[in-house]
Design goal:
By secondary structure, the protein is α+β, with helices and mostly antiparallel strands. It has helices at residues 10-17, 26-35, 88-102, 117-125; strands at residues 2-5, 39-46, 49-57, 72-78, 107-113, 129-141, 147-160. A hairpin with a 5-residue loop joins strand 6 and strand 7 (147-160). The longest helix is centred in the middle third of the chain and has 15 residues, at 88-102.
Length: 171
């Protein structure tokens, strides 16, 4: 497995291999945020195809309930489902943490839906501790052009980063 920073050419492959049902511009929006400097969009590759992704959101969590000033690892996903629990998510988190360390950042956060105990268990194993509950509010335009509003009950967790170094390949 290899983890790289997303390139423009990767967006079409992400759309093909990691679809976001009802959200046709999902990966393009993340790439646009990366291009604007708001995040770094990381992609996990296995046998030449994307199998996972996450954002290191340098601007932090958008929820007003989260008042910590730290970047947020967001939107972690591994696809297809039969590849979960094989370390791909862990490696994506470690790569995002390494990017933070390279910038001299010592604390990062991650949000988890309260209806996602599997992810919460992973984050706890990696040393993330709960700080506050919040509502993750977001909207997207579906394939029919209708704007959908979503609200997910979440918990924000943080981790102090240990010293050390991992290799993340640049775009």
């Amino acid at each position: 497995m290899e983890i790289t920073v997303c390139r423009a050419a990767d967006v079409a492959l992400l759309d093909r291999y990691i679809p976001a049902p009802g959200m046709p511009s999902f990966h393009a929006r993340r790439f646009a945020r990366q291009e604007s400097g708001q995040c770094t969009y990381l992609v996990a590759w296995l046998d030449g195809r994307p199998v996972g992704h996450t954002e290191m959101r340098w601007i932090g969590c958008a929820a007003p309930e989260v008042t910590l000033d730290c970047p947020e690892i967001g939107g972690l996903g591994v696809w297809p489902e039969d590849l979960r629990s094989r370390g791909i998510g862990t490696e994506l988190i470690r790569a995002a943490e390494e990017l933070a360390r390279e910038r001299g950042i010592t604390v990062v956060g991650i949000g988890v839906g309260r209806d996602n105990p599997r992810a919460a268990a992973l984050y706890a194993r990696l040393g993330y501790r709960p700080v506050t509950d919040y509502l993750d509010r977001y909207s997207y335009e579906d394939r029919d052009g209708t704007t959908r509003e979503c609200v997910d009950a979440c918990t924000f967790l943080v981790r102090e980063l240990p010293s050390g170094h991992l290799d993340v390949k640049p775009a």
